[in-house]
DNA sequence: CGTACCACTGGGCAAGTTGCCCAGCGATGA
DNA sequence: TCATCGCTGGGCAACTTGCCCAGTGGTACG
């Protein structure tokens, strides 16, 4: 659960050069190969590293428009709404948040015009009372984890 | 830019079993190794596949609380705010959206109490006028891309 | 109608990596 | 004092990678 400095360096190295192998990592970190292997196994079984899935860019796939929709759900319809939204490919993420029984929904679309279609499809579902949408214009800080890893790795040792 | 069926299957396969190699993929897909290699290279240089960085779970790192903060920025301070928030490790993502000159900010914290510290640190910056925060309770649809990939891969061929 | 060009196949090669094993060592804790 | 744990450093066979090649079918263009 707690991460030490070596774990941190492994994760950072892996993030910078994902194609790197265990052997090369051990060389760069100055430790034995078995050590890196053991650490990696531990990090994965701990759930710290969930996997190494490919990071796909929706924009390159033809979906350059991202938006966030805040949904207001009819009482008791939460489960139905989740199940429905799971079936919509353009829904990339769905979160329930504090506030008036709300959900936050990350959407993509082929264009601003297409976004209308996606939103209609989302809010067309019966259990959704109201939706307000914000279109993403810029992404100054793309989803990242490294700074947090470094903090988690560096803060503990002392 | 456009993805065909084989590209889609490669991405899906890669997402399901990231440790798989090119040779094993070619066997499962029933194509020559060189073909898979060429497709992968193309997908990466196209930017469709950005990389294979490790997916780290903030919760396993000791940051189980996620929240979204909507920030209202003082006129003309946008760039300063971005630069500042980039330095805060708990800020995992920052987006500018339509609406009253707003930014949306994804945060994590060690606990609800710790979230207060993080928020103070975020909104303590001068260029931020107001912030409203929503704590994430559940994550019914974790960030995903496969359904979209399948749609992009399956819709074109006909 | 012929000719390039392109993507794919199927094969072959050396070099490197992986997964697995082992013995030894130093620090930690009972 | 002894057992445990994590790390080291080494060795091994099996596999994969990166790279090369010639041949083939389809498509676009002259």
Automatic annotation (TrEMBL), chains A, B:
Q: Which GO terms describe its molecular function?
A: sequence-specific DNA binding
The UniProt entry, under InterPro entries, shows: AsnC-type_HTH_dom, Dimeric_a/b-barrel, Tscrpt_reg_AsnC-like, Tscrpt_reg_AsnC/Lrp_C, WH-like_DNA-bd_sf, WH_DNA-bd_sf
Keywords recorded for this protein, A-Z: DNA-binding, Transcription, Transcription regulation
> Record's Pfam families?
AsnC_trans_reg, HTH_24
**Lineage: superkingdom:** Bacteria
Annotated HTH asnC-type domain ranges read: 3-64
- Write out the GO cellular component annotations: cytosol
The record's Gene Ontology biological-process terms are: response to amino acid
The protein, known as: AsnC family transcriptional regulator
